[in-house]
Amino acid sequence: MAASKQAQEVLTTGRGRMAGRVGLVTGGGSGIGRATALLMAREGAAAVVVAGRRQQEGDAAAAECRAAGVPSLFVQTDVTQEDQVAQLVQATVDRFGRLDVAFNNAGYQERRAPLEQQDSSVYEAVFNANVRSIFLCLKYQVPVMSRQGDGRIVINTSVSGLRNPNPGLALYSASKAAVISLVRSAAMECAPRGVRINAVAPGRVVTDMMLASGIADMSAVAAGLPLRRMGQPDEVAEAVLWLSSDEASYVVGHVLATDGGFIAS
What we know:
The chain is of the alpha/beta class.
């Protein structure tokens, strides 16, 4: 589909690692997603599309991107629903003419409890949000990028998928391990078509999800990390932008642990 006149004008503006590129962030209303959307804007994106379920948060994030001088819109989306994911990608292309960078960030973590106390509805919620959503995003993003001959996709997984540090969060850990496998397989399929797929694996990062995880003493957790502090969403966003940039042009199928040294300790 040919870009609209507005899209053609947008694509000529901006300087930085995102210059001339249209970015999409799912789960972009808060935490790591919001930090990444704003960093895309600051790095000269041609446009930023913020997606998520919560209208007020999403509108606010898109407004911050516009305040940075970058066209942006919020598309209310439940990424576990195929029709909504398809509409999200189509809305991006219709408005801005293309899709260059996608950060598939939306996810869900169950309340901490022993595995035998979880029920099938919790299992479905975790795997739908963390695995099905990634499959759906890839299903609709990859064809657009393949037609362009270029695209960069970064997926938010977790150190819990590499090493399980969280007793009581077995479903979350298993879902993130599945995502890591999906990232590597999809990366091998898509690289010959010019689409680079990688992942970040955050560790202890201060987000609403982390604060709601049931950890009793955050200071004790921070003291146990090599850097002796928790991570911040902006620090993960920097890793996402690097993987999305030309600086990482030879990086494919990689899972970058943004974990303050947790995996190495």
